[in-house]
Amino acid sequence: MADRDDILNALPQTGKKARVPVPAPPLPSLTSDAMWQIFGARLEELGGRLGTLEDVEVILSRPHVIDQESATRLGRQPGGVPIWEAEVGVTTADLAVAEIGSLLISTGPGRPRMASLSPVVHVVVMPKERIVATLEEAFARLSDRSTVMITGPSRTADIEHVLVRGVHGPGDIVVVPV
Amino acid sequence: MKAKPVNHPAVEAFARQLAETTRDSVRATSVKVIESRKARLVDAFPDLEATRTQASQIKDFVLANISNLLSQLEMKCRLNGVQVHWAKDAESARKIILDICKEAAPDGGTIVKAKSMATEEIHLNKHLIDVGYNVVETDLGEFVVQIDNDTPSHIVAPIIHKNRREVAKSFEREGLGPYTESPEQLAAQARKHLRERFVEAKIGISGVNFAIAESGRLVLVENEGNSRLSTTAPDTHIAIMGLEKLLPSEADLPLFLKLLAGSATGQRMTVYTHLISGPRRKDEDDGPTAVHLVILDNGRSKVLNGPYKDILKCIRCGACSYVCPVYRQVSGHAYSHVYSGPLGAVLAPALEGIEALPELAKASTLCGACEEVCPVKIPIPRMLLQLRDEAMRKGVAENPIPWTLFTFGATSGLRWRTGLKMLPMARIAKHPLKDGWTEFRELPKKEGRDFRKWWNGRS
Asked: CA B30, CA B55: separation in Å to the nearest integer?
């Protein structure tokens, strides 16, 4: 801990420069349908898509894992194959963010982090009322648990700036409003 | 006789030897990113100028209150169950990390790494490999850098200097799969190879993009998913951050996340924004059981007390490199430091001392493009001038002969006036200053009246 005191003592002690408040951007008043429309368009730009419960049934023919909440909504058993073998992960999300097409997913009981990460397809079963217009609104309602915000499929442009999807995380995202 | 090229780093010499393919790929990517970046930021922020000012002021606040904010971060992290360590220099940081690794994986084994400039700065990989760990870079670009025994040439796009054929040859050599020039197939080969490393690793090491003082939350952003896998699959997660990477509160995040994504890659938002609130809780299914945070000084407290402190407002978007005419010609390796581009030309000598890198600040045309694109408005050109000045005053930089002559002439009124009178002779004389310049050009003739005569004679 010697390093700690050395560092803190070496830092400038100017302090007390007034904090600039970040003005909250005006909140657009959008209907849920309008927000879902924007969200769908953004998701498509990113390479994901909106889907239906019928799509989910087809996708679930592949080896999969399902988190607790979406299992209940789909009338299926939670869990599934060992996580590294799963080709499909089905989860719910805390919030969808319309303006940027993002999904916020927190951890918690029955909500494994890996389900949205290691499979090649990520299906999000999303209750329709859990959508907000802006990132600012979403972050005002963050869970205090570890949370990931997912904005489209996994991607890289490391090789010659050519876009490739699904490099480590899922290359396909299907969001199913319910 | 010609002016000597700058000697350290040999930026000019490097640029001359640079393979054409390298220069082409650096320039092509830079242009693409800068175009998409501009469109995206203008679209995301109705008043981009005001937004940059706001972000800049928040970072000013952080630097002015850094001691208090770090204490607050430490306390909040501890409450979240994160173990906090302080490292005053690279050696101390390496020892802390090695001790954690020895406890978490005493028999060696695989360590998966997410992209982190702080770990590059302290040369962590080499030390962990030397004691027997199998350290694997998992970001696609960094993985290529590692198997080629190379170094990153851009802080966001580490293999901007390589083309797909070079990557394909490396993968074929390492046995990842058959030669292919398809970036999709190359990425798939890397995914398959690296997935096995994620399964076997007991330790994951990452950097930190933002640490939130108010909540103790560590924020990591990335596009591939390798950073999430590195910090989720292994039982132990070690995060290392430069001590300036703070934000006061979570309410500041939306602004900075949008600015970083737009500035770095022209995206509306980075694919994965990982907000880490500590290790796995008792009722959670997965995630690391131990999370360590190493807060790194390594020269930063010294920089904060000096004239270059504003460089520590940097959020590492890399836009200044993409837009820099010098960077586009010479690529990142010419800067001979882990931090390259205009940012590196200031940060590297600020951290290491001007004596270590006296010529780096000269690798700039002072065109000002870097400051124009900087999301937190860092006055890079002003600091480059200050660094040049410091190098001259301390006598550590070489002054090319024409400038030495110019300085001699320009610092005395008599010598200057005599010089002006003799200037027309330069057209006929063969002398050192003209060499090179007059190969393709004519020196201008003196035309019209003499300004000084007119000035002195006016009533």
From this structure: 24
Q: Is residue B275 within 8 angstroms of chain A, CB to CB?
A: yes
Show me where the domains of chain B are located. 11-32+306-393, 67-298, 407-452
Lowest mean per-residue pLDDT among A94-103, A120-129, B154-163: B154-163
Is the pLDDT at B418 greater than 90, yes or no?
Answer: no
Instruction: Report the C-alpha gap between B341 and B274 in whole angstroms.
Output: 27
Domain B11-32+306-393 top-level CATH class = mainly alpha
Give the gap in angstroms from C-alpha B358 to the nearest C-alpha of chain A: 25
Band (B35; pLDDT cuts 50, 70, 90): confident
Of A16, A117, A139, the CB nearest to B253: A139
Number of Cβ within 10 Å of residue B248's Cβ equals: 20
- pLDDT confidence band for A1 (50 / 70 / 90): low
A61–chain B nearest CA distance, Å: 22
Q: Indicate the burial class of B213 (C-beta count within 10 angstroms; 0-12, 13-18, 19 or more).
A: buried
Q: In 3D, which of B142, B184, B254, B253 has the Cα closest to residue A47?
A: B184
Q: What mean pLDDT is predicted for residues B264-281?
A: 96
- CB-nearest to A22 from B25, B54, B270 is B54
Residues in B closer than 8 angstroms to A122, CB to CB, are: none
Q: Which of A109, A117, A151 sits opposite B229 (nearest CB)?
A: A117
How does residue B437 score in pLDDT terms, banded at 50, 70 and 90? low
pLDDT for the residue B426 = 65
Alpha helices by DSSP H, B240-305: 253-265, 300-304
Extended beta strands in B260-364, E state: 272-276, 290-296
- Percent of chain A predicted with pLDDT > 70: 93
The answer to which of B64-78, B100-114, B320-334 has the lowest mean pLDDT is B320-334
For chain B, what's the residue count? 459
Q: Tokens for B171, please give them.
A: 């993968």
CATH code for the domain defined by B67-298: 3.40.50.10420
Task: Spell out the residues 6+ positions from residue A129 whose beta carbon is closer than 8 angstroms to its own.
Answer: A32
Instruction: Kindly state whether B295 is in contact with chain A, defined as any CB-CB distance less than 8 angstroms.
Output: yes
pLDDT of residue B213: 98
The whole-angstrom separation of Cα B437 and Cα B443 is 9
pLDDT at position B6: 41
In CATH terms, the superfamily for domain A29-177 is: NagB/RpiA/CoA transferase-like (3.40.50.10420)
Token digits of residue B6: 């700058």
ipTM of the predicted assembly exceeds 0.85: yes
